[in-house]
Amino acid sequence: MKYYIIAGEASGDLHGSNLIHGLTTLDKGAQIRFWGGELMAQAAGASGTLVRHYKDGAVMGFTDVLAKIGMLLGNVRFCKNDIIAWKPDVVILIDYPGFNFKIAEFAHGKGFRVFYYIAPKTWASREGRNRKLRRYVDRLFIIFPFERSYFNEHGIPYTYAGNPLLDAVDNHRYSPVCEGRSIAILAGSRKSETERMMPVCMEVADRFAADKSLKDYTFIVAAAPSRNAAEYEKYIGGRPNVRLVSGRTYDALRFADAAVINSGTASLEAVLIRTPQIVCWSCSKLTAFVARNILHVLDKVKFISLGNIIIGREAFPELIQENFTADKVYDRLKRLITDKTYRAGMLSDYECIRKNLGGTGASAAVAREMIGMLEGKMV
């Protein structure tokens, strides 16, 4: 069968690659045409064709959308024409709702089957999108247990088969990235995130270097796949206690004493890898105003990190917007390193989060469900 898959971010590339592994294992004649990245390309191999790389269309926040509106609309037009020309058996959308909802409406209107993998976070904001899910999507595939009651309540058919990150984390072959003690820094996959995270994190690194009890720590900056080294090096500035690594995010987390992480999939990966963490996030004042006063995000969810949302309490601290300062990051990192009771409590909560996600094998199970539906064996 022919699968047209669209992922618009690094996390979507990871989930898409695992899904492709499942699809090509079960469907030996699978043809994959996709928007994604290197991981999806590796998984698809000779059966796949990369149409657009996700880093060419990544946006973050209201102001970023405004700045790139022409490019985004051009990509939508191209994608629609590409789907018509290729005539897939199904269009599989992975998260990335701003773009993918436009494609869902179009593909549905043209008679293509539409599957949505990794549900848009309508439980946090923009509930009006649920109408589009009901109207334009044949089946929603969710990956968080708390989403089941939400989508049941809103009458949206879904399949839940666990969370694919468990497979990605548990199957990784780990190796150290440095000798001695370290702090992992994951500054986000978008340029705007890096620009906000790195200056604060480098100030914290300087404070560690000046503290006799902490000066032996190395800060490992794990570069996002969509960013190049120069975007980080200009902030690192030759600091001897800071090292940049690429393609080693899981290794950086696994051997770190603690991590400072931009909110997103990476914070849940840190939970599963068992790395004590602080989640930090900030955006432009305009984006923050829209989120708080128009989308009312904070009225619907108490936390921004998936791990905390899953467990329903603060398993690890979140420093958001005005609270994301070097002083607060430094204080919380020092506590994570020195307070054994606090650290043990966080790791205990991590185990609860993992249990809530279920077992392994989610990607293969989702692929099996998708193929069964396309063959008419499942409803």
How would you describe what is shown here?
The strands form two sheets. A seven-stranded parallel β-sheet has the order 3-2-1-4-5-6-7, sandwiched between helices. The chain has a six-stranded parallel β-sheet with strand order 10-9-8-11-12-13, with helices on both faces. It has 379 residues and is of the alpha/beta class. It has 18 helices and 13 strands. Helix 6 links the parallel strand 5 (113-117) and strand 6 (139-142). Helix 1 (10-26) crosses helix 18 (362-374) and helix 9 runs parallel beside helix 10. The chain is globular.
Task: Give a brief outline of the structure.
With 379 residues, this protein is of the alpha/beta class. It has 18 helices and 13 strands. The longest helix is centred in the middle third of the chain and has 20 residues.
Instruction: Give the radius of gyration.
Output: 21 Å
Shape: globular
Q: Kindly, what is the distance between the CA atoms of the first and last residues, rounded to a whole number of angstroms?
A: 18 Å
Task: Look at the helices and sheets and give the structural class.
Answer: alpha/beta
How would a crystallographer describe the biggest sheet?
A: 7 strands, parallel
Strand content: 15-25%
Mean pLDDT: 91
- Enumerate how many helices there are, as a single number: 18
- The proportion of residues forming helix, as a percent range, comes to 40-55%
Which residues form runs of ≥5 with pLDDT under 50?
A: 59-67
Main sheet: which strands, in order across?
A: 3-2-1-4-5-6-7
Number of strands: 13
